[in-house]
Amino acid sequence: MLIVHHKPIWKKHFNEIKTAIIGALAIPDLTIEHVGSTAVMGLAAKPIIDLDIVYSKPGQLGVIIKNLQSLGYIHVGDQGIVGREVFKRNSNQNHEVLDTIGHHLYACHSEGIELKRHLAFRDYLRKNSDARIQYEQLKLAIAQEANQDKKRYAALKEEKAKSFIESILSEVA
Fold first, then answer.
1. How far is CA 31 from CA 10, 92, 142, 162, in A?
2. How far apart are CA 20 and CA 145, in angstroms?
3. What is the pLDDT of residues 83-131, one digit of tens each?
4. Which homologous superfamily does the CATH classification assign to the domain defined by 9-172?
5. Quick one: which H or E segment has residue 139?
6. Nearest Cα residue to 53 out of 13, 81, 86
7. Which of 6, 12, 126, 147 is 20 to 30 A from 39 (CA-CA)?
8. Which positions ≥6 away from 10 have C-beta within 8 Å?
9. What is this structure's pTM?
10. What ranges do the domains of the chain cover?
11. 149, 144, 65, 47: which is closest to 102 by C-alpha?
């Protein structure tokens, strides 16, 4: 199944990934936020942990990019979303945590719009069970329509969930 019921272990997985990454970054004043559906207790999700490395000082992004390379990450730019830098794992690595727990890794400036959107949506779903249930039903319907195909799901989610997400974000703005 593409979308699975919430698993409490996702919080543990986030902390394991965070610990591995924060140690290698060796930059004071960085935080790492657990974002995305796995960060919302009770919300069904793809079992992939989404993490935002949050930096605030000029020049820190360059250091993040360099230090993540030593952990086997490749910086692939913002992939069309300004303010959210994307990192992919190098398949030639063999890290006991980073290569066994599925995750998406991003870096966002602390004042960036994308970070604020990630946190606002996560926090809203954490506090509002009706919205959480609606979003879960929407995601399950999209997964069914996509016939559990990951690429098709991503395209349909972009198309069909966008208005739901934007309506929530406009409510909290």
1. 18, 27, 32, 27
2. 37
3. 999 999 987 778 999 999 999 999 999 999 999 999 999 999 999 999 9
4. Beta Polymerase, domain 2 (3.30.460.10)
5. helix 129-145
6. 86
7. 147
8. 38, 39, 45, 47, 49
9. 0.94
10. 9-172
11. 47
